[in-house]
Amino acid sequence: MATEGPAMRRIQVAEHPRLLKLKEMFNSKFGSSPKFYVRAPGRVNIIGEHIDYCGYSVLPMAVEQDMLIAVEPVKTNTLQLGNTNPLYPDFSTSSNNIQIDKTKPLWHNYFLCGFKGIQEHFGLSDLTGMNCLVDGNIPPSSGLSSSSALVCCAGLVTLTALGMNLSKVELAEICAKSERYIGTEGGGMDQSISFLAEEGTAKLIEFSPLRATDVKLPSGAVFVIANSCVEMNKAATSHFNIRVMECRLAAKLLAKHKGLQWNKVLRLEEVQAQLGISLEEMLSVTEDALHSDPYSPEEICMCLGISLDELRTQILSQNTRDVPIFKLYQRAKHVYSEAARVLQFKKICEEAPDNVVQQLGELMNQSHRSCRDMYECSCPELDQLVDICRKFGAQGSRLTGAGWGGCTVSIVPVDKLPGFLANVQEAFYQGSDASFAPEKQSLFATKPGGGALVFLEA
Questions:
Q1: Given 126, 190, 354, 383, which residue is catalytic?
Q2: Is residue 298 part of a domain?
Q3: What are the C-alpha distances in Å from 331 to residues 244, 272, 298, 359, 374?
Q4: Annotation says 190 is catalytic
Q5: Residue 414 lies in a domain
Q6: DSSP secondary structure code for residue 209 in this structure
Q7: What average pLDDT does this structure show over 373-380?
C-alpha cells in the first residue's frame, strides 16, 4: 500500500463556491486571508459494526460530505477556532497548553484532539498559533463520523502548518489514538477511511498493521443513507464504552477458558489468533465458555480470580466502573458473526455472481438483526427506518455507525432508486407521526468519495 502523505492540490478558490464563501467568512472574522484549506470526509460503514475496536476488519467508504477548515498560521501562540455554524461558539486557547475536557464533548475538543496528537507525536513544546474557520456538512451525531472527520482534519491542518510530513497510515493511527483524549475507546475505522479513501471504491480496512484494500462495489446498485433524526453523541454517554468493555471482558473470559494468558488479552480477535481457529469455531467456543445470562462484576471477578478493585482500576474505563451487569455472550456472538459477514461481503463483491445485490443485501440484513438483538445498539426509530427501506425496494438495510440513533445504509438496485427515495421520504419523514426538523431530514444516495486533502490557492 502507498505510504505517501495526503495529496496537496492547487486550486482557483473563486471556482469553488463553498471554498469562496469560507474564504470570505474567514476574511470578515479574522481580517486576513487563509493560507491553505484542509478537507477530511465523513464515512458510511457498509458492514462491520462495532468490531474495529475488537481487532477485526471493517468495510467502509468515504462519503462526499466532509469537514473543511480554512487556516492561517500566526506568529503568536494563540489557537483561534471559529465555526461557520452559529450553534458552535468560537474558542480560543494557548497552543502550548491544550486541555481537553472529557466531561463535555464540545465541538472544539475534537479539533484539539487532532492538534494535540500531532504535537505529541513530534514531541513539540513551542507550537505556532493558528486562525482556523471550520465548515462541516456532515450531519452531526448521525453515525457518519463527523467528529472523527474533524479530528483528522485538525491533525492534517497542524501537520501542514508545521511544514512536516507523515504518511496517510501514520496520520490515521495518530488521529485514532488522539481521539481517545475525548474519552471514547474507539477503534480506528473512521480515521483510517478518512485518510485512505479513494474515489470509486470502498475499502476493507484491516488493523495491526493498518492496511486498506480496494473493494469494488456492484455497478447495479447504489448505497442510500437515511438519517433517523435521533442524535447520538458517543462521547456524551457511556453506551459505547460499555460495549467496548463487554468485548474486552468477553475476550478475557474466553482466553481464561482456553488456558491462554488472559491478563495480556484485550481484544476478541487476539483470542482467535492465539487459538488459530476460524470465526465459526470461535462462535462454538463462545457457546461453550460463556452463558447467555448477564454477568455481574462479582461473577467476572470470580471467573478471573481477581478483586473488584482490580477489575475497576485495571480493566474497566472510567465511565464503566459502576455498571451493574455485562452481557458478554451476546457481544462476543455479534463480533465473531459480524467479522465473518465482512469477509463474506468482500468475497461476494470479488466473485460478482448475477444475484450479488441480493446476497449482499441479506448480509446487511443479518448485520442489522445482530446489532439490534445481540449488541443492542439500535433504537425504535432505526428499526422503523430499516423496515421502511426494505419495504420500498432496498435489498438490504442496516444501522451504520455506533447506533442508538444516527443513520441507516441501504443497498438499492439502480432502477428502483427514484421510487425508493420518494417513498421513504413520504413514509418516514412525512408520515402521520413524523415531526422532524427539516435540517435533520437527510436521505441521499452516495458513491465512494476520496480521502483527506490539502488545498492551496493557485
A1: 190
A2: no
A3: 9, 15, 19, 25, 6
A4: yes
A5: no
A6: T
A7: 97
